[in-house]
From TrEMBL:
GO terms for biological process: photoreactive repair. One of its GO terms (molecular function) is deoxyribodipyrimidine photo-lyase activity. It comes from Deinococcus puniceus. This is Deoxyribodipyrimidine photo-lyase. Its EC number is 4.1.99.3.
Length: 450
């Protein structure tokens, strides 16, 4: 089922009666499973009696992305190419600005269908194309279980304010998405599409041909829809039952490790939610809270707060109390370069930084501690926020992500409440190494990533 609330006309009009195909612009939802934009495009092509073609515009200058991120992305495009081919849908990956790529590929199209993204650059791409395109542009939500504007018309204060709104709606959206067979096939790409085409069959070779920052090597986990579904199956079958108890312990393999797949659109939140609901139990309840409530709270932030990725997006009360204590004495001060190299006096912080640099991910509990300490070790909270954004975006496989932006600003008080006043932090929540030692065997974690 595709709810009407998922569908938004970005350029109004009737499909071009002279169009010879329907074009699917893939950008955020890089998969065939539970892809509402793809299924909507198939149904629209069938309704018009036309074939369907798909295109992805790959820009090598995505802000702060490096070879680590592009390798994971290309692995997803490889799997998508195979999945679309199996359904009779030709797919082309072209090098260039995504709106320019789609505009060129849309010559002869009756209508263009695309997916949805909540980051500023993703919205700008779609707005740019909408004003230049000569045929209707339809956006179909497939990255949130519930479209953000359907849940709430404003920025939500915290999880406790958005949770009841989501819970009132989510069972209506827990609906399996039935794939439809494409009735007419055979659309070929125009031979005069004057944009470089990328071969995505060998991602590790293709990534070397791009003008990228190669100083950060690929992470430890491969990307793509095949890997995403395998990881989901392993998590649900082996870890979900104990997820509520083990997820916050960095010495155990208790986390889902699905964040990067969700970020690159290689796994649908619907697929993951249905699998968890079918399994059931307290682990499933905890997982669904994070997958839907917390993740879509971050989308809410990006949709309604224009400063979601900067210190100015932190709530007024938190910035006020932090700035009142900006002159407090610090135990230590570190530059961004020292932080990058994990050269602090804190072995637990260094371990978390090393985990991120080496693998492309950091355990979520340690990421909270990691952020709080940078706030404590930097001259101003604004500078600390900038350090965290830069480090996270550089090394995390799911950096430049709504969840990441919300998580970093949580360090500074976003989606939280005032606590007991302390030096440096004011009434923003504080964390220390003592808490790590009480909760789990932090020395084992430190040794692992020393």
């Amino acid at each position: 089922m595709i709810h009407e609330s998922r569908v938004q006309l970005l350029r109004v009009g009737m499909p071009d009666s002279k169009g010879s195909f329907v074009l699917l612009w893939v950008q955020a939802s890089v998969r065939v499973t539970d892809n509402h934009a793809l299924e909507y495009a198939v149904r629209e092509a069938n309704r018009l009696g036309l074939p369907l073609a798909a295109v992805f515009g790959l820009t090598p200058s995505f802000p702060e992305a490096n070879a680590r991120h592009y390798q994971f992305l290309l692995e997803g495009l490889r799997d998508l190419s195979a999945g679309l081919a199996a359904r009779g849908i030709p797919f082309s990956v072209r090098l260039g600005s995504p709106p320019d790529v789609v505009l060129a590929a849309s010559k002869g199209a009756a209508v263009v269908i695309t997916d949805r993204g909540y980051l500023r650059i993703q919205r700008q791409w779609r707005e740019d194309l909408a004003v230049r395109l000569g045929v209707p542009l339809v956006q179909v939500e497939s990255e949130a279980l519930i479209p953000v504007q359907t849940t709430s018309p404003k920025q939500e204060y915290a999880a406790r304010t958005i949770r009841p709104k989501i819970h009132r709606l989510w069972h209506d959206y827990f609906v399996p998405l039935e794939p439809h067979e494409l009735k007419r096939q055979g659309q070929d790409w125009p031979t005069d599409l004057d944009l470089p085409q990328l071969d995505v069959s060998a991602p590790s070779a293709t990534v070397k041909t791009l003008p990228l920052d190669f100083s950060v090597p690929p992470g430890r986990e491969a990307g793509g829809e095949v890997a995403a579904l395998a990881r989901l199956s392993a998590f649900v079958g082996q870890q979900l039952a104990g997820y509520a108890d083990t997820r916050n312990d960095p010495t155990q393999d208790g986390s889902s490790r699905l964040s990067a797949f969700l970020h690159y659109g290689q796994l649908s939140p619907l697929t993951a939610a249905l699998a968890a609901r079918e399994h059931g139990g307290p682990g499933a309840d905890t997982f669904l809270e994070e997958l839907i409530v917390r993740r879509e709270l971050s989308f809410n932030l990006c949709q309604y707060n224009p400063h979601y990725d900067t210190y100015d997006g932190v709530p007024d009360w938190a910035r006020k109390t932090l700035e009142e204590h900006a002159g407090d004495k610090r135990e230590a001060l570190y530059t961004r370069e020292q932080l990058d190299r994990a050269e602090t006096h804190d072995p637990y912080w260094n371990a978390s930084q090393n985990e991120m640099v080496r693998t492309g991910r950091m355990h979520n509990y340690m990421r909270m501690y990691w952020g709080k300490k940078v706030l404590e070790w930097t001259e101003t909270p604004r500078e600390a926020h900038a350090h965290l954004i830069a480090l996270n975006n550089r090394y995390e496989q799911d950096g430049r992500n709504a969840n990441s932006f919300a998580g970093i600003s949580w360090v500074f008080g976003l989606h939280d409440r005032p606590w007991t006043r302390r030096p440096i932090f004011g009434t923003v929540r504080y964390m220390n190494a003592g808490g790590l030692k009480r909760k789990f065997d932090i020395e084992t974690y430190a040794r692992r990533w020393a």
